[in-house]
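Let's sit down with a protein and look at its sequence and fold side by side. Which protein we use is up to you, so please pick one and set it down. Label the sequence line and the structure token line clearly, so we can match residues to local backbone shapes. Go ahead whenever you are ready, and we will take it from there:

***
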Amino acid sequence: MTAEKPSPVPRRPWTTRLVVIGAIVVVIVALALTFWPRATGTPTAITTTPSNYHTTSPTPDPVVTPVPPTKSTTTPEPSATFVPRSRPPVPLDKNTTIVAGLTVKITSVASVAGTGAGPGDVNGPSIQVRMLVKNSTAKTVRLSNVVVNAYYGTAHTPASPLPKPGGKTFPDTLAAGKSTTGVFVFSIPRNQRQLVSITFDYSVDTKVIVFQGSAPK
């Protein structure tokens, strides 16, 4: 008796295999999307602090205590308040010693019409002052540094100098035993001549001589 051969197993068609493979891929992708970590929309900044960083508090400003000025122990020299380094005022007609053997004197004060000669000069009522310097020493003296000024009124307002009429400065030198005259014109209103001061400054080493009194109107 002949044995029967088993019938061959029919093979699955390719379409069935593709469906199975596709299903497996879908399952894998779904699992991957489910368990794979998702990135957040906003990145988180990571900051680090240096190991040698130390926080410090701001240093407060130092407290400054005001110190009153030191009082001077030097007694100022007596002088005319409006002229530094000056002697007490003397009358206009007084003969005054500048240094030993050298004297100065106002010989006349006249009311004149002052006239200018340059920019800034203003013509007007003025006084003309004549001053005589006499050298009784045995040597020639220098007069090139002499400065003559005038002030008027109780406020000692400076008077503007004018060259005319007759303005004349002292010579640079004055020989022994000689004398010389200087003529100075100053613009001073007529109603301000009750108190007039004429200053004679010989040098920085001597005090300023101040002649003071009323002048003609």
